[in-house]
């Protein structure tokens, strides 16, 4: 049996080693190394300016890194692109771009289709199904500029789902969404985990980390710690990550941790 072109079954969804990224020669991500376990929901947390978005973008080759390697299922991102889904930060998207919700979701299928083939009925159906999943089927033909912030976020999640990726990166999917959208996103994350997908989420609300996530990466330019939430999301490591910017408050009898 020729298995030379196959990846070992044990290759981790994501393996980053020695990642350093600088803007104008100033390092904002420094020597970061970690491996993500398969089938987990992982929170990437740290104070404003800690380098969270930059780290995601460097992994995806959207900003250049000074040093470091990225392995995705044991291969390069370029080769594994179709297995990766990315939900960018909402502010980084040009919402005036003249396109409707359904077309945005169909863009998620291009990796499967190649650029030459035009999406057909099957692709459209799949895109409609994912819009339906995020409660946006009625808005399929609405221009994205005419959607609310939470609706735009749902459309981008639908696009990532339509990609049928195995490893997802989401940059603050909960930012500025209402309680219903937050619930919808959490349900989706649960479904992805159920299906064995791995999801790395930049997250700000420390009070929900324990409830939503399995695993956590604590970043402040350097990686302070990473591991299961139970052993890594500790007051000591959070203080180390956030420094004086962290306040601990009591909420419903339980100690909750609040970021900036
Ligand atoms: N294009 C850029 N050019 C120069 N500096 C940048 C650029 N993008 C980000 N930075 C700087 O790099 C640092 C890390 O920014 P980044 O957006 O990665 O942090 P973050 O942890 O995602 O922050 P936040 O939680 O506020 O979104 C910050 O000091 C920021 O000002």
UniProtKB/TrEMBL annotation:
Q: Name any one GO molecular function.
A: ATP hydrolysis activity
Residues annotated as domain ABC transporter: 14-246
Instruction: Tell whether 4Fe-4S is among the UniProt keywords.
Output: no
Q: Which domain of life is it from?
A: Bacteria
Recorded hits in CDD domains, A to Z, give:
ABC_Metallic_Cations
The family assignment reads: Belongs to the ABC transporter superfamily.
> Protein name, please?
Metal ABC transporter ATP-binding protein
